[in-house]
Amino acid sequence: MDFKSRGGEEKMKKVKIQKKDGRIENFNKQKLQKSIFSAGATDSQSQLVTQEVEEWLYNIALGEIIDTQTIRSKVVDSLEEKNPKAAKAYQSYQKRA
After folding, report:
1. Average pLDDT value for the chain
2. Residues 6+ positions from 80 with CB-CB distance below 8 Å
3. Among the listed residues 41, 25, 21, the one whose alpha carbon sits nearest the alpha carbon of residue 33
4. Hey, which of 5-9, 45-49, 61-65 has the most confident mean pLDDT?
5. Whole-structure pTM value
6. Please, are residues 52 and 82 in contact by the beta-carbon 8 Å criterion?
7. How many domains does the chain have?
8. What is the bridge-based pairing of β-strands 65-67 and 24-26?
9. Residues 71, 57 contacting (CB under 8 angstroms)
10. Is residue 4 situated within a structural domain?
11. Complete edge-to-edge strand list for the sheet that includes strand 65-67
């Protein structure tokens, strides 16, 4: 079943992300996809990993708050199968304040 056919965009607005500094934000698919691409994944890899993470979030975190480290771990796991070099870059990236 395609994620979007279940109203995925609307459901993802109900998934809240707790940032490292404690702020709570709505899940942002585009932001995640851009960060995966910036780590060295191809456009198609970043789209696929983002879709996998979205579906995973929908299954475990609808109406919940999930921290960015948990999402990061899921991204790394998914990306390791597709592009190990990008996975390592994504894992080691530290956002500068």
Report:
1. 86
2. 87
3. 41
4. 45-49
5. 0.81
6. no
7. 1
8. unpaired
9. yes
10. no
11. 24-26, 16-18, 65-67
